[in-house]
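Researcher: We're teaching a course module on how sequence relates to structure. For the next exercise, students receive a sequence and then see the predicted structure as tokens, so they can try to spot secondary structure elements on their own. Here is the exercise chain.
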Amino acid sequence: MLVPHTIDCPYCGEPIDIFLDASVPHQRYIEDCQVCCRPITLDVSVDEEGVPSVHASGENDA
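Model: And here is the predicted structure for the students to work with:
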């Protein structure tokens, strides 16, 4: 099940829409910003009720 979610790009600050797979409890992947094309690392956790939590970071962020 794909769930729409909006994040702010850690580079340019623009809001971008992403789709999350809520059937996977934890995932980490890279998606390019739709505005500035820089790579964003996404750490996604989905709780037992199917609500996603997303942390977006740039490639040099700790």
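Model: If you want an answer key for the exercise: Residues 11 and 47 are 28 Å apart (CA to CA). The chain has a mean pLDDT of 92.
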